[in-house]
Known about the structure:
Blueprint: H1 3-6, H2 14-26, E1 31-36, H3 43-51, H4 65-69, H5 71-74, E2 80-87, E3 103-106, H6 115-133, E4 139-142, H7 150-156, E5 160-162, E6 168-170, E7 178-185, H8 205-209, E8 215-216, E9 219-220, H9 226-232, E10 248-250, H10 254-258, E11 283-285, H11 286-290, H12 294-299, H13 311-323, H14 332-342, H15 349-365
Parallel strand pairs: 3-10
Antiparallel strand pairs: 1-2, 2-7, 3-11, 4-7, 5-6, 8-9
Helix pairs in contact: 13-15, 14-15
Amino acid sequence: MSEQNSANHGEFNHALTREILATLSGAGFALYGICRASETSYGAHFTQWLARGGCAEMTYLGEHLEQRMNPQVFVPTARSIICVADRYASGEIDPPHSNASARGRIARYARGRDYHRVIRERLEPIADDLRQRFPGNRFRVCVDTAPILEREHAQRAGLGRIGKHTLLIGEHNVGSWIVLGEIVTSLNLAPSQPVDGDPCATCTRCIDACPTQAIEPWKLHAERCISYLTIEHRSMPAQWFEQRTDDWLFGCDACVQACPHSQPRQSASLVKPNPQYQAIHSDFDLADVLTWTESSQAALKLSKVLLRATLSMWKRNALLIVLGTRPQSWSTQLVNALKQLQADPSADSWLREKSALLLQAHSKEC
C-alpha cells in the first residue's frame, strides 16, 4: 500500500505517527502527542456554562459552536489532532521591585515573544511538509484562537491532565507554565495514551491563592478572574474590583504559581522553557502607563498578545492597582501622572473621575 493510502485507510499509520512525534521533539516542544478528532465530552456542560453567562463579555466563545464541539465540523474529514505544548516559564518567583516606584506585573506567558507566532512558526513547516507528501489531505494549524477545545484534546493526547484551576497540568513536572498548539488533520494517525487520574486530589492551593476567589474545583468564574478582567473585559470594572490589592497589570499567575505541579523543582528543569519566551517586558511603571500615548506605546513595540488590551484598558488596569495602595506612598511622578490624566479631555470619564478621587485622597493624607 502506498504511503498516501496507508495514512488514510484501515489501520493507524504507526510509522508515520512515530516520525511526526520525533519531528515535534526535534522542533523543541516540551510536550506532544496525538488524539482522535472526536467530539467533545463536555458539550452539555459547555452550552450550560454559556447559557449561564459564564463567558462574561467573551461572547466569541459562543460563536461557531458546532465547530468548537466537534473538530470534524471544524475540519471536514478530520481524523487526528496533533497536539503540542511550549513551556514559557520555570515558575521562579518574581524578585521584589528594585526601586520605590509603583509597578504592575505582566503574566509570564505574555512577557516574551507572541506565543501564537512562536508555535505557528514551527508547526506550519511541519504541516507544509505533510501537505506535500500527502496531497488531498487537510492540515489546519491552530494556536489558541481557533474554535476548538484545545485543553481537552491535549489531555486526550497525553500531554497532561486538567486541574482544579481549569488549566492543563503538563506531564513530566512541566506544570501549567504552557501554551498549546495543534494541527487538525485528515491523516489516520495512532493516538497517544492519555493520562488518567486526578492531578489535584485534596489540594486547593490554586483556589486559596486566587486574589478574587474566582476558582471553584474545575470551575472558573470569568467575571472575577484577574486575567479576564485585565485583558478581555472591555468595559469599566465593577466597584469591588477597585479595592483589590495585588499588582497584576496584565493577566495573573497566582493560581499557576501556587500549584505544586508548577514549582521550579529539579526534575522540571529537564524540560526547559523555550528561550523565545524570555522576558522583554516583565512589568511597567504605573506612572508611565498612565501617561502613555498611542505613539509612546507604539515605541515600546509590544507583542500582539499585550496589544489585546487597548490603551484605555492599560490605563484602567494601572489605576486599579493605584486604587489599592496608600496615597502617602505615591511618588511625585505618579501624582503628576494622575493630574495629567484627570485633565485629559480625550480620556474616558471613568479614568478622569478616578484620577480626581485619588488626588483628593492624596491631598488629605499627605
